[in-house]
Amino acid sequence: MRVSAIIPTWNEESRIGVTLARLRRQAPDAELVVCDGGSSDRTAAIARDFADRVICLPVPGRGAQLRRGAQAANGELLLFLHADCRLADGWLEALRRVWASPEGLSATVFSIRYDAEGLSYRLIERGTVWRCRRWQWAWGDHGFCVSRPVYEKIGGMPELPLMEDVAFCSKLRREGRIEMLPSSIFASARRLGRRPLLKVLENGARLSLFALGASPQSLWRGYYGKN
């Protein structure tokens, strides 16, 4: 069962090489697909040294990038990753063990860890694990993995600039169970800034606005500080 790892990028030249090299070492037979969103740095050039496929879109948009990457991928399992993540050794074996018996399964995710020290990060990690196991809610930094049939049945990745992972998870929850693997994914703490707990509250507020009907485009502008 071949795995295709799909990674959206936007100005990630300082990280993408390390991420892809590690994935290539851990899973030599996995397909690595990078979909760049118009980076102004050397991200795409660096990705070509490691990835099987590099797709370049004119503008960033995480949902559109992930969807285009999935269209180009050839694997039976589609693994959606962030450019700055790091998977623990043994992740491929853990993934294949669970997907060997996929009855009732819509997706798998990894147990999230942050690459930083501090009580705040450990509390956030515990909260995200509880949320996923109790409520079947996971976000993009957990590393969604879905089978090709499930992916196509639910209509693929929503082409949203932000909250695409929330919309994707909502569809997956209706299709079957989301199982957390006994393997970790290390996410970059840069996403949480200097005040991680406050950032989690801000993200929760954005999620509430999205649930109430706020457009992903306006949330994207607020998230990235665009006018």
In short:
The protein is of the alpha/beta class.
So what's the CATH class?
A: Alpha Beta
CATH architecture classification: Alpha-Beta Complex
Radius of gyration, CA atoms, in whole angstroms: 16 Å
Write down the secondary-structure element order. Answer: EHEHEHEEHEHEHHEHH
Number of strands: 8
Largest sheet composition: 5 strands, mixed
Query: Rough shape?
Result: globular
**Integer tally of domains:** 1
Q: Compute the average pLDDT.
A: 93
- Decide which structural class fits the backbone: alpha/beta
The helical percent reads: 40-55%
Number of helices: 9
Strand order across the biggest sheet?
3-2-1-4-7
Could you please say which CATH topology applies here? Answer: Spore Coat Polysaccharide Biosynthesis Protein SpsA, Chain A
Describe the structure.
- The structure is a single chain.
- The protein is an alpha/beta fold and 227 residues long.
- It has one domain (3-193): Spore Coat Polysaccharide Biosynthesis Protein SpsA, Chain A (Alpha-Beta Complex), CATH 3.90.550.
- It contains 9 helices and 8 strands.
- α1 (16-26) links the parallel β1 (3-9) and β2 (31-37).
- The mean pLDDT is 93.
List keywords for this structure.
single chain, 227 residues, alpha/beta, Spore Coat Polysaccharide Biosynthesis Protein SpsA, Chain A, five-stranded mixed sheet, 9 helices, 8 strands
SSE order and pairing:
Elements (H helix, E strand, L loop, with lengths): L2 E7 L6 H11 L4 E7 L5 H6 L4 E5 L4 H11 L4 E4 L5 E2 L3 H9 L5 E10 L4 H17 L9 E3 H6 L10 H12 L1 E11 L8 H16 L4 H9 L3
Parallel strand pairs: 1-2, 1-4, 2-3, 6-8
Antiparallel strand pairs: 4-7, 5-8
